[in-house]
Design a protein that fits this description.
The chain has 476 residues and is of the alpha/beta class. An eight-stranded parallel beta barrel has the order 1-2-3-4-5-7-9-10, surrounded by five helices. Helix 3 packs parallel to helix 5 and helix 13 runs parallel beside helix 14.
Length: 476
C-alpha cells in the first residue's frame, strides 16, 4: 500500500481488561469478583464453566488476577509507552467491584472512582481516546452468592445503577462505551462470562438464555441512559466474532454452519436490531426454554447500539456430524479443525481473510459502523541475549489482518478503528497463563506470578508505531 485507505481520524490502539491487568484485587475498597476465584491450573476450566462452584479463594491455589501485571500501580508508565507508539484509542474495562464492592450498594467507592478518573485523565493527556467496557467478564461475588448473578432480574437494576454512576462520573473523559464484553461467551463459559453456577438437574440452557435476556435488557437501558447523559456518547455491543464455515458443500453442513452463526450472532441481533430474531421462537421451543419477561421489555430492547464491536482471532468450521471426538480443543467455542489454514501455538486458526468475511457478514446484517476491538496472536515470546523480543511472527499476523481491514474499507464498510488485544502482556483469560503473550510490550512475569514486572518494548512495538504514524499505509 502506497496510499492509505484508512480514513482520517481512524482510531489505532490496543486493549487490556481490568481483571487481566490491574491486580490490586482487594486494594482501596475493591470487592471480590468472579474472576478473583478462578484459579490457575487444572481446575480452572470447570470453574469457568460453572461446574465447580467457587464462592471464595483457597490458600493452596494461585489466582492470576490477584496481582496480574499490577497495571493499577503502573498505569502512568504504561500509558506513556502506549502514547510513544502513537495510540489514539485505548480500550480497558472498569472493575464493577472496584466501584461497588458488593454490587448492590447505593453509594460508590470513591477510591475506585478516583482510580479510573485518574486513568482516563492520563489517557486524555496524550490525546488517547478511552474505550471503556462496563462488564468484561467480572461480576461482584456478592451478587453471585446472594442473587444468583444474571439469572436474577434484580441484576438489571444493579447494573444500570453502576453504569449510570460511571457514565456520569466520567462524562467528558469517555465517550465510547461497551456494555458487555463478548456477550455470546456466556453460552460457552457461563461462570466467567456471566457469573452463572448451575444446580444439579437444572436446564442449563434455560438458565443461560434467561440470564442473557436480563443482560440484553440491561444493555438496552444503559444505551438509553448514556444517550440521556450525553447525546455525544457512543455505545456499542461486543461479540466474540468469527464466522463458521461449512466443513463441506454438503447441504447439511451448510445448514449446520448457518445455525452456528445464528447461535453466535443471536445477542447482537437483539442489541443492533432491537428485537428478538425470527428464528428465536423455534430455538427456544426446541431447547425447552421459556424466557420470563416483564411488560415493556419489547419497548426497552428498541434502544439499539450505535456501533457493533467485535473480537476476531479465528474462523471456525461446522458440520452436521460434529462430535466431541473430532473437535478442536483449542478454544471454548467448538469448531472442527480447518485443514486449509495454519494454527497458533495454542491451536487457534490463523485466517486473515476470515476477518474480511466476518466484517462483511456483520455489516451486511446490521448496517452499523464496525469497530474491531480485539485481534492478536498469543505466543511464547522469548528475549534474546540482547534483551530484545524479535516477534516477527506477531508482526506478520497483525500485518495480514490489517490488510484485510483495508480490503473491508474498500468494500465500503465503515470501520471506526483497529484495537489489538493485550497491547501490554497480561494474564490470559482462557488459561490464566502469562506465557501466552499478545503484547507489543513484554512484562517480566511467569505463569506463577514470579518476576520483576519490568516493561520492555518488543520489535512489534516499533513496527506498530510506524503503522499508526502512517495511518496504515506503511505495513512492512
Amino acid at each position: 500500500m502506497t496510499k492509505t485507505v484508512f480514513p482520517k481520524g481512524f482510531l489505532w490502539g490496543g486493549a487490556i481488561a481490568a481483571n487481566q491487568a490491574e491486580g490490586a484485587y482487594l486494594e482501596e475498597g475493591k470487592g471480590l469478583s468472579t474472576v478473583d476465584v478462578i484459579p490457575y491450573g487444572e481446575k480452572r476450566l470447570n470453574v469457568k464453566l460453572g461446574l465447580d462452584t467457587r464462592f471464595q479463594v483457597y490458600d493452596d491455589e494461585y489466582y492470576p488476577s490477584h496481582q496480574a501485571i499490577d497495571f493499577y500501580h503502573h498505569y502512568k508508565e504504561d500509558i506513556a509507552l502506549l502514547a510513544e507508539m502513537g495510540f489514539t484509542v485505548f480500550r480497558t474495562s472498569i472493575a464493577w467491584s472496584r466501584i461497588f464492592p458488593k454490587g448492590d450498594e447505593k453509594t460508590p467507592n470513591k477510591q475506585g472512582l478516583k482510580f479510573y478518573h485518574d486513568l482516563f485523565t492520563e489517557c486524555k493527556k496524550y490525546n488517547i481516546e478511552p474505550l471503556v467496557t462496563l462488564c468484561h467478564f467480572d461480576v461482584p461475588m456478592h451478587l453471585v452468592r446472594e442473587y444468583g448473578s444474571w439469572y436474577n432480574r434484580k441484576m438489571v437494576e444493579f447494573f444500570c445503577h453502576y453504569a449510570r454512576t460511571c457514565i456520569k462520573e466520567f462524562n467528558g473523559l469517555v465517550k465510547y462505551w461497551l456494555t458487555f464484553n463478548e456477550i455470546n461467551i456466556v453460552l460457552h463459559s457461563p461462570f466467567s462470562g456471566a457469573g452463572l453456577v448451575f444446580k444439579e438437574g437444572e436446564n442449563k440452557e434455560q438458565v443461560i438464555y434467561q440470564a442473557a435476556h436480563h443482560e440484553l435488557i440491561a444493555s438496552a437501558l444503559v444505551t438509553k441512559i448514556a444517550h440521556e447523559i450525553n447525546p455525544e456518547n457512543q455505545i456499542g455491543c461486543m461479540l466474540a466474532g468469527g464466522n463458521f464455515y461449512p466443513y463441506s458443500c454438503k447441504p447439511e453442513d451448510v445448514w449446520a454452519a448457518l445455525e452456528k452463526d445464528r447461535e453466535n450472532l443471536f445477542f447482537i441481533d437483539v442489541q443492533a436490531r432491537g428485537a428478538y430474531p425470527s428464528y428465536a421462537k423455534r430455538m427456544f421451543r426446541e431447547k425447552n426454554i421459556e424466557i420470563i419477561t416483564e411488560p415493556g421489555d419489547d419497548e426497552i430492547l428498541k434502544n439499539t447500539v450505535d456501533f457493533v464491536s467485535f473480537s476476531y482471532y479465528a474462523s471456525r468450521c461446522a458440520s452436521a456430524e460434529m462430535n466431541k471426538n473430532n473437535l478442536s480443543k483449542a478454544n471454548l467455542v467448538e469448531s472442527l479443525p480447518n485443514p486449509y489454514i495454519s494454527t497458533s501455538e495454542w491451536g487457534w486458526n490463523i485466517d486473515p481473510l476470515g476477518l474480511r468475511i466476518t466484517m462483511n457478514t456483520l455489516y451486511d446484517r446490521y448496517q452499523k459502523p464496525l469497530f474491531l476491538v480485539e485481534n492478536g496472536l498469543g505466543a511464547r515470546d522469548l528475549m534474546n541475549v540482547q534483551g530484545v523480543v524479535d516477534d516477527d511472527y506477531r508482526i506478520n499476523y497483525l500485518r495480514a489482518h490489517i490488510k484485510e481491514i483495508a480490503e473491508s474499507i474498500e468494500d465500503g464498510i465503515p470501520i471506526i478503528g483497529y484495537i489489538s488485544w493485550g497491547c501490554i502482556d497480561l494474564v490470559s483469560a482462557s488459561t490464566g497463563e502469562m506465557s501466552k503473550r499478545y503484547g507489543f510490550i513484554y512484562v517480566d512475569l511467569d505463569d506463577k506470578g514470579n518476576g520483576s514486572r519490568k516493561r520492555t518494548p518488543k520489535k512489534s512495538f516499533h513496527w506498530y508505531k510506524q503503522v499508526i504514524a502512517s495511518n496504515g499505509s506503511s505495513l512492512e
